[in-house]
Amino acid sequence: MKRPLKLLPIGNRKAGGTGDLVPQARLSGPIPWVIAIMVMLTVIAAAGGLALRKLASVAENELSGGVTIQIVEGRPEVRDSQVRQAVQLLSALPGVTNVAAVPQQEVDALVEPWLGEETAEADIPVPALIDARLSGPVTRNRLEDLRAALRGKVPSARVDAQSTWLKPVFGALSSLQLLALALVLLLGLATISAVLLATRSALGSNRETIEIVHLLGGTDSQIARIYQRSTAVAATEGGVAGFAAAVIVVILLGQQFANLGAGMISGGSLGWIEWLLLALVPVAGVALATITARLTVLRSLARML
Fold it and tell me: Which first-to-last residue range defines the signal peptide (predicted)?
């Protein structure tokens, strides 16, 4: 009957002590640093994807029932009269929950970067704006009903859904989310490849020792457990370091975007659910590296002996 393999005294021996079967280089070896870099990049990419997803969701919810009415009229007195009539007509329509005319000073401030500061004195016709909100999504039929209601008394009115203006933006956000997902998957594959190569290299450098262990009664599973434990420790060290660095980078980037003062961008701030998902990245990295090391060792030993 074969005796179970003792893991510690077999392997490289140093003066005054014993060595392990697999030399434990810890942070001096490549695996912790590789895992740290991969985890950091993965967390940053995942954080960007989650922030973009939340930003798009918040923007769509805010604009789903929004409608903008432009009163395109060059004569100020006629324009102001049509604004008042449009507000009255829209307020009386069923399904319209809120109607508010945008102050002309705010409209002038919006076009000031393009038309200059003195738009009123320069006699440049600037359309008036009315914000309306419907109880439900804005469909093509609902827009046609609003246009028909305004066509008789407010001929200068142009009705548009607010969400249509941002369709290109939403398309770009979706593309960036897919890019972030692709980066996460590629980084996962890179992590597997790095662990696989490192494990094969360790197996090759310890081939003679492994053969002796087999002669002494050691099994493939026992040897794989040694590499598995070594990889798990190294991956945990690298995962913690990489996650800590990624958190610092994400927080600094979040502060930079928050300083922009844009309401739409502030909607993409990460909440506790997003941070919880990001915390799972190093856990998944450690599990992935450990499983890869074990399967690599078992498969290599099956071919070796």
Answer: none
CA 290 vs. chain centroid, Å, equals 26
Domains of the chain, by residue range, sit at 13-60+168-304, 64-165
Counts of helices then strands in the chain (DSSP H, E): 10, 6
One-letter amino acid of 271: G
Identify the DSSP state of 157. E
Nearest to 197 by CA among 27, 23, 34: 34
**192-220 per-position pLDDT tens digit:** 888 888 888 777 777 777 777 667 776 77
Question: DSSP labels for 93-118?
Answer: STTEEEEEEPPHHHHHHHHHHHH-S-
Question: Who's near 68: CB < 8 A, 6+ residues apart?
Answer: 129, 130, 131, 132, 159, 160, 161, 162, 165
pTM over 0.70: no
Spatial CA neighbour of 305 closest among 195, 212, 196, 200: 212
Distance, CA of 48 to CA of 173 (rounded, Å)? 11
- Helix axis angle, 220-258 to 272-304, nearest 10°: 150
Q: Which helix (H) or strand (E) holds 69?
A: strand 66-71
Determine how many CB atoms are found less than 10 A away from the CB of residue 263: 10
